[in-house]
């Protein structure tokens, strides 16, 4: 995972494309990935705002998010293309190289998740799992009324707010830097094809 592939055909360097190629679009995010993304995004917003103190809907939505996370984790191993964890979760070397390029404002455009985005995705998954576990514990007989469980649940919720804000800001910056609407690509599933120094770290989905 420390050697991202340039283009869907293998590790060879991408040749500089024509203007026409630069405007071509390919399917990157499959329906399950997009449904998971928006289920988690909208569910998190709802449970941390309007449903924060509405007990039953908050609980049911939390379980729905944990269910979505479970499906996504399975899909990360059995799915294809950019959905697979092996396609985008970076090794230490790749992450350090990308971070260094990012500081210099020379980071390449990734067709799929870039290394920083991949790390954030993993962190958010862990936080969501933690929220689900502590939420379940709060409703169980064994941990009912335990202050530390409630405090941990609240702390995880606050951390996920900060992580989500950072994620959104990063998506906006990346959209501007690479002239591509990142949030919209998670709606349509399509992104601009790789050209020049772009990195396509997995085959396009069908």
Automatic annotation (TrEMBL):
Residues passing through the membrane, by range: 35-54, 60-78, 114-136, 156-176
Annotated SUPFAM superfamilies: Transmembrane di-heme cytochromes
UniProt xrefs under Pfam families: Ni_hydr_CYTB
Swiss-Prot/TrEMBL GO biological process terms: respiratory electron transport chain
Chief subcellular location: membrane
Membrane-topology descriptor: Multi-pass membrane protein
Coiled coil regions in record: none
Keywords: Cell membrane, Membrane, Transmembrane, Transmembrane helix
Start and end residues of each Cytochrome b561 bacterial/Ni-hydrogenase domain: 28-189
Protein name (Swiss-Prot/TrEMBL): Cytochrome B
Annotated source species: Allopontixanthobacter sediminis
